[in-house]
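Dear Dr. H.,

I hope your travels went smoothly. While you were away I took the liberty of generating a structure for the chain from your last submission, since the lab meeting agenda had it listed for discussion. I wanted you to have the full record in hand beforehand rather than looking at slides cold. The sequence, exactly as received, is reproduced here:
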Amino acid sequence: MNLQELINIANKLVADDKGILAMDESFPTCNKRFAKLGIPQTEEARRAYRELIVTTPGLGESVSGAILFDETIKQKINDGTPMIKVLSNAGIIPGIKVDAGAKDMAGHPGEKISEGLDGLRERLGEYYQLGARFAKWRAVITIGENIPSRACIEANAHALARYAVLCQEAGLVPIVEPEVLMDGDHTIGRCFEVTEEVLHTVFNQLFKQGVMLEGMILKPNMVLPGLACSKQESSEDIADATMKCFLRAVPAAVPGITFLSGGQSAELASARLNAMNVRFKSKLPWELSFSFGRALQQPALEIWNGKEVNVQEAQKALYHRAKCNFAARRGEYTKASEKV
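The corresponding predicted structure, in token form, is as follows:
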């Protein structure tokens, strides 16, 4: 393990107002999004879509890293170039999703535990040899009646820490993703309480497992009301609640926080990230960035719709969304930013 190399990569992932593109959808997730648009749910369709993403001109201007799925990291574009090499040539650091998905947690109805620790050391070694330099593991926390339980929070935090230390051993920067879901009618105050508890627990476990905080990235949810909550706060109120929570719970040694979009619309995700940087950027110990999936990809996916003739227009939409979030990192995003 080269500690300085891990630190350098972690810092590069959040440098220059860039962010991370999450293109690591599993087969079921990707196929579900394709089905909604009438796109064939085939390996070739997934390959063609991901080729559209990685070959987008100028994407490296706003994107520092891309999280890939196991299928994608081994795929090639039409001319035979490995996708991972296309990204590297564009100045984008390749990463890899390594959890095996969230499964029902035994004895805890309504709660999930992420699996994939078995054989992880060997898989990480293979991914490093393929060219990946960071990895991602997502834990899912649901807010509901009498949940989340301490058992669920602690089990997921422990798994995240085990994963993170294995990553660093293999020379990969771990992206630690504890996601408190937006689903439900909970208030922003309830999300604050749960998010703070989850973050404290995760960092306690990271400390116990010996994870070097300077060589990792945190990928959390923003502090938000549930999607079904009757009161939806302003971007400024969300920024204030999120930063109050994170200043309490995230150590200053962490280089950056790359927020997930978690089902927010593309515009809302950008506006809320922008509000955080406008109000807090000069006062924070860590960089505030993005690691969006749908909030970056969805407009491009809808334009592409599985048709080769739409590739260039879809790439323009992806480039535009990346630029909007680049602006949000600088606190320069406005409604006018949306005009192409």
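Two observations you may find useful: The mean pLDDT is 96. The beta strands are 19-22, 63-68, 93-97, 102-104, 112-114, 134-141, 173-180, 217-218, 256-259, 287-292.

With kind regards,
E. W.
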